[in-house]
Give the backbone structure.
Amino acid sequence: MQKKKTVLDIQKMKADGERIAVLTCYDYPTAAIMDGCGIDMILIGDSVGVVVAGYDNTLPVTMEEMIYHTRAVMRARPNALVVADLPFLSYQVDLASARLNAGRLVKDGGAAAVKIEGGVNVEETIAAITAMDIPVVGHIGLTPQSLHRMGGFKVQGKGAEQAERLMEDARAVERAGAFAVVLEGIPMGLAERITAELSIPTIGIGAGPHCDGQVLVIHDILGLCSKYSPKFVKRYAELSPVIGEAVTSYIADVKGGAFPEERHSFK
Ligand code: KIV
């Protein structure tokens, strides 16, 4: 029987040189499937706003939506470590609301840890949340909630000055007590430097092969989002046409009277 993973297991994986496999997840059936496959960590990302709710970016996602999706994932009773995102405006205003909202993801949602975007600018916030014994994953580089400051979803940390700033962000996140950090959309050489310097695991997305682990959005690896496929995504299935074919066959069966048959009916 698989054992429930904790933050200590995730940290030990870095020490042991075992790579950490992470995927986003937002619902019960998908959580049950990926947990059965042995995923190490499940992230209820605020990317739910884009890939499930159809928003243009993650900014409109609310605490209520994050709690709803976290609860749905937790009903699968995953052995993976479950981390939930703190959405935009749930931690930026003051430390008290950051602590309260982190606590809600654990108490109301059932997550074991929370993720927060930012580096030096959220050092105090990460420290305040970890002081409540809530484990925190940091997230630096291309931070989607900073879309308007970045002027779009652009690779960060290019050039010596920007790279130094990101090194400082990485150090700040570790100093504040985060147990892991997501490195998103940064050059692979910089991700390698950060991974070598930090004692906490780095989880890359668009950050090259030298991180301690990798995370991708489940809809992206399954080919469920036909709108846009970033360079860093590897598609492991193409489910959109499969779903399309099933729906088309269903419509034809209903209209042509081929469904339902007697065997689908009650006597
Ligand atoms: O919201 C999200 O899914 C994320 C991951 C892509 C890292 O933050």
